[in-house]
Design goal:
It is a multi-pass membrane protein. It comes from Paenibacillus cremeus. Keywords: Cell membrane, Membrane, Transmembrane, Transmembrane helix, Transport. This protein is an all-alpha fold. It has a domain at about 70-220 and about 270-280: MetI-like fold. It is built from 15 helices and no strands. Helix 12 (about 220-225) packs antiparallel against helix 13. The longest helix is centred in the first third of the chain and has 32 residues, at about 60-90. It is globular, with a radius of gyration of 24 Å. The model is unreliable at about 230-235 (pLDDT under 50).
Amino acid sequence: MTAFDYVNYLLLLAFSLLCLFPFFYVISVSLTDPGVYKPFTFTLIPAKFSLRSYEYILGSINFRNALYSTVYITVIGTLLNLVFTFTMAYGLTKKELPHRNLIMASVIFTLVFNAGIVPNFLLVKSLGLLNSYWALIWSAMINSFNLIVVKSFLQTLPEELEDAAKIDGCNDLGVFFKIVLPLSLPAVAAFTLFFAVTHWNTYFNALIYLSDAKKWTLQLLVKSLIMDANANSVQGSLGDADQILPQETIRLAAVVVAMLPILVVYPFLQKYFAKGVLLGSVKG
């Protein structure tokens, strides 16, 4: 390697460490014993390890409600995203589909022109979905860009396999579930993570559609903890003012719990990204 390569690697290593420092700091403070925590001090190693902040937030009824809401929205929303996106994309790959070009043009149209916040809110309100989990799920059912990528991916699959399955007696549903989906597992895995991350991190839609604090998602609760200005309001957000702990340790413990599931799942699905997404992006 040349000197230029060594300099590049050192710069990349230094930049990577700079990106990791905030994560280490958040984890360190969240694991610091509240009795020895000193505000406005930077440390990457807790002076004294403790799980009191995690015990506190996990014991809060408000936090458990937010965790349940987020898990429910993520699981149901991701499953429905996969079903609707892949079935619609599969149908659009068929040239014999009536008005196929018109439907595809309508999908592309939504990429350029979006209705906006107010029409979406009025639509959700007219459907009677305000203050409901389904307001978050239905409003993010199909993403046009993801649909186009999945459609392009499915078009790369050999048509001869479908023809052979139909000769053996499979109908369209049989072909889809027995041939198309097994061959599309890389794309399914990649988009499962995309959809799950979108639902897990949902914030703005939850902010405008959910008025009941008992139905708040984790992101709304974490926002409430971070934006509150004093320790009393932090305790109040969690619904327990009897036990007073440093607000910073509680906030960062909540941040860690909110981001941990995605960090755990991501490494298992990362290997599917290149194959699952790039194959769908090279054929229109």
